[in-house]
Amino acid sequence: MLKGRTAVITGSTSGIGAGIARALAAQGADIVLNGFGEAAAIETFRAALAAEFGVRVLYHGADLARADHCAALVREAETALGRLDILVNNAGIQHVARVEDFPPERWDAVLAVNLSSAFHTIRAALPGWRLAPVVLARQARVALGDEVGQILQAPLVAVLVGERPGLSVADSLGIYLTYAPAVGCRDAARNCISNIHGAGLSPQDAAAKLAWLATHARRLRLTGVALKEDAAPAALPVTPSIPASYDSKEGAGR
Predict the structure, then answer these.
(1) How far apart are CA 128 and CA 113, in angstroms?
(2) Strands 30-33 and 57-59
(3) How many CA within 13 A on the CB side of residue 242?
């Protein structure tokens, strides 16, 4: 049901979060785990989840008390797996003490992880796309998109064009994606998705390819031969998820 989708679940190395990760993986979603714990135990869980459900499972050790780590979790998940469809803000920590004994830094940490991290991850995950006016043209060529994109000051342009008769089939469609379109752009600076028709590449698969290319084109600021559609997902960096100063009175609502 969720095959081809990607889910990021914070606080998912144990408890409720791990259960959510399992449920989404069982539906076919690729998973990005986040949380704290013993490195060996996390790797065992990650590998078992991937093997049991046949999905891609990565771990990112973002410290959710830090806004930059929250943004990096989302950004690097998108980079490694090509997309982000589901975000579950499950992480939580606690510290129990009388008010007069409650260290202010622990209070700040609880608010940062339990409240602010949800804001920061959601903010990072919201699509940063704006759709420019759609232009329809008759008897046009791919290069028209360069002129239109330059006029509209669009950072990225996608041209959908009917392929020439005899090139494939009569109803075949091609998509040409260009970063920083400008008059005189060379074809080597574009990415092409072709052979889109009933007996070829399905519209759904073409849309998925376009989404992948557009996401990575915006991140790398380029299209064309330097943007490989079949690039293998990169491993996510593992950064400390919870500062070492956290003491035994603190629990994880994960």
Answers:
(1) 24
(2) parallel
(3) 25
- Fill in the DSSP letter of residue 72: H
What whole-number distance in Å separates Cα of residue 151 and Cα of residue 163? 25
- Alpha-carbon distance of 204 to 210, in angstroms, equals 10
Q: Which residues make Cβ contacts (< 8 Å) with residue 128, sequence separation at least 6?
A: 218
d(CA 104, CA 107): 5
Q: How far is CA 209 from CA 70, 83, 101, in A?
A: 27, 11, 55
**What are the angstrom distances between the C-alpha of 215 and each of 167, 169, 181?**
29, 29, 16
Helix, strand or coil, per DSSP, at residue 32: strand
- The number of residues in the chain equals 254
Q: Output the pLDDT for position 92.
A: 95
Q: What are phi and psi of 18, to 5 degrees?
A: -65, -35
Task: Tell me whether strands 6-9 and 30-33 are parallel, antiparallel or unpaired.
Answer: parallel
Q: Report how far residue 133's alpha carbon sits from residue 206's, in angstroms, rounded to the nearest whole number.
A: 21
- Mapped onto helix, strand or coil, the DSSP state of residue 194 is strand
pLDDT of residue 232: 37
pLDDT for 247? 36
Determine the pLDDT at residue 208: 84
For the chain, 254 residues long, the average pLDDT of each consecutive 10-residue run is 91 96 96 96 97 97 96 92 91 95 96 96 83 87 93 93 69 91 94 89 88 85 83 40 34 42
Q: Is the pTM of this model over 0.70?
A: no
Q: How far is Cα 131 from Cα 149, in angstroms, rounded to an integer?
A: 12
CB count within 10 Å of CB 126 equals: 10
